[in-house]
Amino acid sequence: MIYPIVIYGNSVLKKQAEPITKDYPELPTLIEDMFKTLERAEGVGLAAPQIGLPIKLFIVDLSIIKDENPEWANFKKVFINPEITFFSEEKESKEEGCLSIPGISERVPRSLSVTIHYFDENWVEKTETYSGFEARAIQHEYDHLMGHVFVDRISPIRRQMISSKLSSLSKGKVRTHYKVRN
Question: Which end of the chain is more exposed for a tag (fewer CB within 10 A), N or C?
Fold first, then answer.
């Protein structure tokens, strides 16, 4: 099943997500459907709140941009109940976009490396450290679980400059090549 992606303005994007347990209903199917949805939308990450589920689950699949880095060809990960336990002090601002905020991209400061504790799709507990673009993608998706979107992290001046675009999105004025819902 391909889920419609929740667009900016929907309250689920502002809620802090809840942890899940191993017996979460149809979890393997949900994960598979999230990857299908992500592939259809041509994104690199998708958090459960973006499909309307306020649960602590996100996926990252960098294979779509493997031309930029061949190591990403097999970077396809599931993060269940994640907790970022370390953010490097060193940060970098780079352009980011979001499937829930189509048509808008902004420079967002993010830590250059993070350590994340999580469970994978087989409920294997892991603690891993990521850097560079991998760390950026993980922080972006993790923000969704914390009730934040990338425009929350930009300067107030930049936010003011895009406020009319954000307002239009929240009113359902959006065109994408993937299914969306407000």
Answer: N
